[in-house]
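Q: What structure does this chain adopt?
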Amino acid sequence: MKKICTVVSFSLIITCSGMAQEVFHRDSLVADFACLVKLLEDTHPDPYSRFGGKVFFHEQAAQVKDELASNEYTVPDFAEKVSGFLANLQDGHTYISVPQSSVSDLKRYLPLQMRVIPDGLILSGLPNEYKELLGSRVDSINGCAVDLLLKRMAAVEASENEFGSYAHLASRFSSPDINTRLFPDAQENVRLAIETADHEKRAILLSYIDREEWQKQAWAKLPQWANIPSADYLSYNFLDNKKEVMFFRLTSVMARENFDYSINRKWAGAYDQLKSFYGWALKKEIPADTLEAIAGVPSLTEEFHKMLSEMKKHKSKALIIDLRQNGGGWTPITLPVLYQLYGDAYLKTDMEATTYRLVSDLFLKKQNMSLARLNKVYGGNYELGDYITMKDLIGDTCDMRSLRQQFIAESMCSNRDLLVKQDGKPVYNPEKVYVLTDERTFSAAFHFAFYLWKMGAVVVGVPSMQAPNTYMEQTPFQLPATQLKGSISNSLQLFLPVNDRRANIFWPDIMLTYPDYRHYEFDKHAEVLYLLDQVLNTSVTLK
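A:
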């Protein structure tokens, strides 16, 4: 039958600031790095292959140890050195947090914002004086062509494909710390060579400015269609007057379901994750009572049911699911949604996905689970160092009732009664389902997009920074001396045949061209406008 498993694949940004900038004791740094190497070998499903094999993994590790023993490093310097070592894995779920290199760096930024489109970078935010250059394509930065710059980025920050490097470059280049890592001889000024929408070659010289000045900067930014709300992390609304097209926005695959699951099972860091979620997603203080705090988080199952019920009421034709800028969360909470949308057809569909999960001390610690408990849950006789193979299996479709009952019983769902009442039928299944992705669609958000695609949805937008065939799942660690935190993947997923053109870069079915973006004035929601105009032929009232 379809395997029901708890795959937690979330991406959290762990930041460190205000750390002392004094040189750290060499022996302590060497010991911390040795600790990390041991954790990698014990926890990561395959730390060797992308180094060229076990011999070359240890050869590069030895080189890093020698450099740490022979030179002076601050904690941020050490983190950058380790980050470069980890970048060899090309694994977005294995990283170490890199503190800001100095307190002053926290206060200085470049007045520049860039956006990734399928064929490169465009300027999305500039000082007002450069307003006419918005939408221009970036050819080079500091004389370094973008293609070469992507390779430099991949050497300092783990990227699973070129869109991972694009994502890091676009989102972090305004901060001096990443600039100095890409350009060791970086100056106060940054030179951009661009090509305008009218094919004119231009150059811009920008300087770093203090945070206060950056915040007061008179910005020129690309337009943003007002019909789509931008504040809520989970929301939905009709895009047209006839209510034929529903728009569902999700910026994090986290909801009441996963917090209830992890906190009740006393997972390491579960409450801290909930508290953080209240701050950046819900934008309010967390209630003192934990049960009240969990109840205060929206339920993905319930909200999606309400939305589909509205669509059913109006016989809506299309659903657009927006997963852009969604860095992930908990894959299991998306599975009830797929059942709500497709009913038994989802349970009958083989996603043709296989996951190999390595049993390790760090993995058991994360799940607050003993080895004996793990064997009971997974029904095996596993030891540390063994791999648990999980395939998306199809049950006996002649006994759909039993399959359905087991799925609902094991689902990470806040309201199983809603699923029971479906009795195998979709809550509502529109004629067309579209999924919006961009370079930041990652981890559980990518899983959701992929599963929807396997069910027949059309993927639209920019390729994801995550490769379908890649390492997966966060397993937190902390080094003893420096106290730096990070994550190590504990599994390997194979979603597509290795020779599939999408195995490394998941190319959307519909990708806009530069002229398409220009036609829609480089609007933040150009992909939505394109769908409404070119695909769905739906008239909308622009606000």
